Amino acid sequence: MKKKKITNGKAGEVKTDIRELLRDFEPNPFGKQSEDNFKEWMAEAGYVDLQEMCIKAGVSPSGDIRTLRENLLRAFQIRNAPLGKLTLPEKPSVQKERQNKILSLLGEL
Questions:
Q1: pLDDT interval class at 79 (50, 70, 90)
Q2: Does 97 reside within a domain?
Q3: Which of 27, 49, 71, 74 has the fewest CB atoms within 10 Å around its CB?
Q4: Is 92 contained in some domain?
Q5: Contact partners, residue 21, CB within 8 Å, separation at least 6
């Protein structure tokens, strides 16, 4: 299967995954791009500021200041997680083994 190249209109940038393309158009509710900048902002932010950010980010604004910071940081990390990260099983799946066994039995007939 041939991969199609998708562009978002910016010169020199070519996206091959539709999720990457759509991410460029999603507004960033956190207003920060790096985790360090976001942590720095959270350290200086007050309780009301954190609650407002929770509402913008779609996180529950209830709890104490520590809980708000943890929930916001988790949401920030999820939103900025790298796309397409696959974890492959180390052993072949049981279903694949069954398929191979059935095919070998059919081949013997």
A1: confident
A2: no
A3: 27
A4: no
A5: 6, 8, 15
